Structure to design on (677 residues):
């Protein structure tokens, strides 16, 4: 099968994900000794295996309608940066403090989404856009802090800072 | 000596009289607003809303306190639709299906119509549930007592067959998504045998994957990543910048809503039945109602693209569960839902004993509470139409860069606040990345959530049924009980309809290719 066709085949990637999930859960199941507790997941895994088999058959037969550009996002780099930023956020916020980390991570993300940032003709123009974004983000964080922390008494993870 | 109808009429009138005071109505308006806001925040469900407001009611009189909680409950369940429609993130689990059509409507610039439709549907659903609570509470509660583990098992199977119709034309991948949800529901300590399952060697996963956390991840994170990839993709600016007057939208929405009469009627009944059944509640009701609406609506084929029926059905059902959910609590003293359990606790705090005794000894307070749910529905209608439409206009004008980051923050706070657990945030993020990939490869995240909801109930009722069946054959236990037979037939029908339509589609496609 040509690689190009496979690259745009959603069923192929879906089958890959299902296979990975089956493998992870199947390996974990080896640790379960109790017979009562193993019945239901075994049944589900078998059913998932059947679905995987059907998908594999469909990939081999290259059914029409399953082809198409999968990642149609205009800026895939933005998605990658976003994913990295979210991972850093989750790894750091419980040590540094939720609101501080949020301020540090969200500003670059906001600027990434700003169509005007970087397009200003002077560095001063860009600085104004950046400062404005930081200011608004600060207000958003303050509103969230007041609403959740003070009014609703919903806890947020605490670190060295707030 | 038996007491006739005048006895109950007397209690009803006394209850209504006690409720309709300026103090009570003002308290209910304030509490309803708070409930609406909390319900709209992703991760903060109706349980959290009622639990947060509970301490404020201790100093109030029983009637005022219970009316306040009724207002919070009704508004919080409804509030979940705002974020489901505006940012594709259901505020409460009861609004999962609302996002399926509400968000596409919003993207096409019809957000106000979706919100008005959801508000009207919630009002109708809420009123139907309350009417059932008021008029036929005791007989309905008696029927649910006939549900044993085998009946519940088939009820979950019926819920699982719904998966087949959640996906758009790809039953295999949708079912696979649902099965992945079932597997995820197995993570943690097994409730039956007590073994650790799929915890990857860490004790932190013993508590399993929380539904709210998974839901925020699966629905909210893919949207954030899509926004990052396509800045400007959230709403069709050309349509949302000219929203038009609310009055003209109101007329259009009313007209469209009137065309959904059959869907709303059926969803009200589904919501009421699910509300009465302990453990079912709005989370299951809204998905079942969406699925059934898809079958009976003349616009069934357009579901998922943004149709009013798709918003009205789940919203009617989830609010119908509010009043109906109080039926077993008030009449039998068995709280059917977590929120009902909190209200049960509040009643005990006020010196009231839920159950049949409640109607005998404090009938006036019991009826005050029932009428409070009806009044709360009307308050919700007024607030929804004013706040909801304003909210839509505000959200449409917020620049994408701020909306994306705010949604991300709310998602993180929401998932953390469920159990005050840092790991829950990590789980939410992992589910989010998976959800993004699932969406790309048509693995239907809604089916994963449905699998997650029904997983534990399905497994537990199955094993309990096996334990109950000792002495009689498994066939007798599962296939010979009248309610089981009815549920099996309904499940077969529910699975056969989307299967038939998928086969039909496949044949048409094949014929087109050959032609």
């Amino acid at each position: 099968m040509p690689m190009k066709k496979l690259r745009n085949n959603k069923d192929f990637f879906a089958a890959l994900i299902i296979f990975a999930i089956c493998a992870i859960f199947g390996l974990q199941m080896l640790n379960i000794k109790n017979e009562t507790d193993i019945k239901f997941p075994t049944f589900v895994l078998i059913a998932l295996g059947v679905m995987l088999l059907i998908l594999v058959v469909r990939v081999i037969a290259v059914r029409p309608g399953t082809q198409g550009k999968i990642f149609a996002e205009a800026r895939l780099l933005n998605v990658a940066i976003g994913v990295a930023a979210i991972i850093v956020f989750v790894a750091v916020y419980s040590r540094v403090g939720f609101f501080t980390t949020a301020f540090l991570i969200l500003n670059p993300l906001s600027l990434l989404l700003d169509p005007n940032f970087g397009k200003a003709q002077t560095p001063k123009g860009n600085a104004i856009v950046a400062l404005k974004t930081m200011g608004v983000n600060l207000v958003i964080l303050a509103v969230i802090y007041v609403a959740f922390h003070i009014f609703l008494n919903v806890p947020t993870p605490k670190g060295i800072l707030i | 000596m038996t007491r006739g109808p005048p006895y109950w009429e007397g209690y009803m009138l006394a209850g209504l009289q006690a409720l309709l005071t300026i103090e009570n109505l003002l308290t209910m308006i304030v509490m309803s607003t708070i409930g609406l806001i909390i319900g709209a925040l992703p991760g903060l469900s109706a349980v959290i809303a009622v639990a947060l407001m509970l301490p404020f009611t201790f100093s109030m009189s029983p009637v005022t306190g219970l009316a306040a909680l009724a207002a919070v409950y009704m508004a919080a369940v409804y509030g979940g639709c705002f974020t489901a429609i505006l940012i594709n993130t259901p505020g409460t689990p009861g609004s999962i299906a609302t996002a399926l059509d509400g968000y596409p409507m919003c993207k096409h610039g019809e957000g106000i119509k979706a919100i008005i439709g959801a508000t009207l549907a919630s009002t109708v659903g809420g009123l139907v549930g309350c009417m059932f609570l008021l008029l036929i509470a005791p007989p309905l509660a008696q029927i649910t007592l006939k549900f044993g583990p085998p009946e519940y098992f088939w009820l979950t199977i019926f819920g699982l067959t719904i998966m087949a119709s959640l996906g758009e034309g790809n039953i295999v991948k949708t079912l696979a998504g649902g099965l992945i949800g079932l597997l995820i529901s197995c993570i943690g300590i097994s409730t039956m045998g007590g073994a650790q399952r799929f915890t990857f060697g860490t004790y932190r996963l013993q508590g399993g994957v929380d539904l709210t956390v998974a839901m925020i991840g699966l629905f909210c994170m893919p949207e954030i990543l899509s926004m990052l990839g396509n800045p400007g993709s959230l709403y069709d600016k050309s349509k949302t910048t000219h929203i038009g007057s609310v009055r003209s939208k109101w007329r259009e929405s009313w007209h469209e809503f009137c065309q959904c009469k059959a869907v709303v009627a059926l969803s009200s009944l589904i919501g009421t039945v699910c509300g009465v059944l302990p453990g079912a509640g709005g989370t299951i009701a809204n998905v079942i109602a969406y699925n059934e609406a898809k079958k009976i609506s003349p616009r069934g084929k357009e579901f998922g693209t943004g149709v009013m029926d798709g918003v009205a059905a789940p919203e009617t059902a989830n609010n119908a569960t509010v009043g109906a959910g109080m039926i077993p609590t008030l009449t039998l003293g068995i709280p059917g839902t977590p929120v009902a359990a909190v209200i049960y606790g509040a009643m005990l705090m006020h010196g009231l004993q839920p159950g049949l005794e409640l109607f005998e000894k404090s009938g006036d307070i019991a009826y005050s509470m029932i009428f409070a749910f009806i009044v709360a529905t009307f308050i919700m209608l007024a607030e929804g139409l004013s706040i909801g439409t304003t909210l839509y206009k505000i959200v449409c004008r917020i620049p994408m860069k701020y909306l994306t980051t705010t949604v991300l923050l709310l998602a993180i706070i929401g998932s953390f606040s469920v159990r005050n657990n840092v790991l829950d945030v990590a789980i939410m993020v992992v589910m989010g990345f998976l959800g993004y990939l699932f969406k790309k490869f048509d693995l239907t995240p809604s089916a994963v959530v449905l699998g997650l909801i029904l997983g534990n109930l399905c497994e537990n009722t199955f094993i309990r049924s096996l334990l109950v069946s000792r002495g009689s054959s498994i066939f007798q236990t599962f296939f010979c009980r009248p309610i089981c037979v009815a549920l099996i037939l309904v499940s077969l029908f529910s699975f056969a309809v989307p299967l038939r339509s998928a086969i039909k589609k496949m044949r048409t496609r094949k014929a087109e290719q050959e032609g």
